[in-house]
Amino acid sequence: MRKRQVVLRRASPEEPSRSSSTASSRMVRGVRYSECQKNHAAAVGGYAVDGCREFMASNGEEGTVAALTCAACGCHRSFHRRETEVVCDCDSPPSTGN
């Protein structure tokens, strides 16, 4: 029986990108961008975000500047929180640490 485990966590810039592929397990990484964190009131010394909950790419070819702009709030993708998804398809049951 194959088990599938999904772990969501924030990506840290100092963590090297890893992907492991062995006979018993396979790990796949995916990245998704969630809520916008752009401070729209920074110029006046305040703090206000627009409430955009998820990055949605604008209508643009992949690899162009238009594809890096959010269709919902108009901000660049770098203002959205980056989350890394790690998916592990394991043949063996997870160890219990005993």
Automatic annotation (TrEMBL):
Query: Domain ZF-HD dimerization-type spans what residues?
Result: 33-83
Region ranges (Disordered): 1-28
Q: Which GO terms describe its cellular component?
A: nucleus
**Superkingdom of source:** Eukaryota
GO terms assigned for molecular function? DNA-binding transcription factor activity; transcription cis-regulatory region binding; zinc ion binding
GO BP, one annotated term? regulation of developmental process
Q: What InterPro entries does its record include?
A: ZF_HD_homeobox_Cys/His_dimer
Q: Which UniProt keywords apply?
A: Metal-binding, Zinc, Zinc-finger
* Keyword hit for Secreted: no
Does the keyword Metal-binding feature in the UniProt annotation? Answer: yes
Q: Give the protein's recorded name.
A: Mini zinc finger protein 2
Query: Could you tell me which species this protein originates from?
Result: Raphanus sativus (Radish)
